[in-house]
Write a structure and sequence with these properties.
With 179 residues, this protein is α+β, with helices and mostly antiparallel strands. Helix content is 24%, strand content 25%. It contains five helices and nine strands.
């Protein structure tokens, strides 16, 4: 598989559809290699997650979407059942869980802002305007679609959305690496 890197300028917005759908729609175009899963990576995240391994996991499990998750502190958790399927969400560690179906044994994990997406997901989005993709994932999971967790606990990850996080990452990158 030859990687195809595309960067989108999200400073524009097309009325009635999300930027995500407008920007990613070309992945369905057969002349551009449509039909292959693609990676959606938040711009303010840096990590060492093995994206090749994540794509392989996505393909092997025939998922609609695969989300990189870690067992770490966050203000918003995604809930996954014993088969690594998305089954709900929870705000903070102490809040009650919100399940999309019958309550199941679950693991609360933090989403890392990295997704592998099957192009058919784009045809299943019914949300209008700008919308958070997690809500769409929950809706699709409630309809039986496979939205899976890719455990990324062994990899480094940092949110660069705050100045102090950027400074910490800069210091970490300056440290000598072990062979």
């Amino acid at each position: 598989m030859k990687p195809n890197l595309s960067v989108f300028d999200n400073s524009w917005y097309h009325a009635g559809r999300s930027i995500f759908v407008q920007a990613a729609w070309f992945f369905l175009d057969e002349s551009m290699g449509g039909g292959e899963p693609f990676i959606l990576h938040n711009v303010d995240v840096i990590s060492s997650i093995d994206l090749g391994r994540m794509v392989q996991f996505h393909r092997e499990n025939k998922a609609l979407a695969t989300l990189a998750v870690k067992d770490r502190e966050t203000s918003r958790y995604l809930l996954f059942d014993n088969e690594h399927r998305l089954c709900g969400r929870r705000s903070g560690r102490d809040q009650p869980p919100e399940f999309i179906g019958a309550p199941l044994p679950f693991q609360a994990l933090a989403f890392s802002g990295i997704h592998v997406i099957s192009p058919r997901l784009l045809t299943m989005l019914t949300e209008e305007g700008a919308f958070p993709i997690i809500g769409a994932y929950l809706r699709l999971a409630s309809q039986g679609e496979k939205i899976l967790a890719f455990r990324a606990d062994e990899y480094s990850w940092r949110d660069l959305g705050k100045q102090e996080n950027i400074q910490q990452a800069e210091q970490e990158l300056k440290r000598p690496r072990r062979p």
